[in-house]
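Thought: the user wants the 3D structure for the chain below. I'll pass the sequence to the structure tool as-is, report back what it returns, then summarize two notable features.
Action: structure_tool
Action Input:
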Amino acid sequence: MGAGELIQSIGLGVVAELVVYLVATRLFRLSGKAAAMVVALLVLLFYVPWAIIHWPGPDIFAVHLAIYLTLAYALGMIGSRVGKGFHWAPALIVTFFVGVIALNIVFVTVAERGITGIFAELLPRPQESEGVADSEFPGVVSHDFQEKEALYNQYLQQVEAQRRRGWRVKKGWRHKPWVGRPETLIVTVHDRDGRPITGAEVHGRFLRTSNSRDDFDFRLSEVGGGEYRAQITMPLPGLWRLVLEIRKGEARHEIRATTSVLPEE
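Observation:
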């Protein structure tokens, strides 16, 4: 879900809540608190099952649910104060939650599209490189071992085997990747003595931090001298995680890294 779709879905939900609240208070003559409770219950009864069936990802789900329930709470507070005058405490609470929601929307938008516009100008310029970008990796980790506890011991054995093997892996883009533009990902593999690892199978998977439905697999082709390449077109800007697996015979080497994709100009 992109930033535009996110804002649109939130807006539709907010309008629906306001309509339900007005109908409950004006047509059925419920009190503000009672109408707000009805709104909150309808959110739980309808949005949560819908989100489970059409799972948008944990971040998107949390933002929607927080906004919908916070709005119901705010409507209840405002409705209970009708005819009683202004009080700073309810206003402060509502303002706080509105600020938290706004920050959540900003964070999800940045995760999807990256930092653009005037804010991007404040960041340091990326260094361009015509050679292989060297992304040092501080360790090795299985992508999903925490989700599969039964495989944890196997994961530890894999980590120890990789440590003993001592392969040296460098990975990176030939040029900085932009969304929608084909770019070459280069991986070089050498043993602990600096000899190239040839004849290996190298494949990977890019993982979207905000929506697992955008994940995709790819395979690299050997070009010689322990170097493997793949031309990849990244579909979305922002942060991506990379899980890279190198196999030769019985040897299996897995590493993980992150990369940032620039938005369209």
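Final Answer: Structure generated. The CA atoms of residues 100 and 107 lie 11 Å apart. The beta strands are 168-173, 182-190, 201-208, 216-224, 227-233, 238-248, 251-261.
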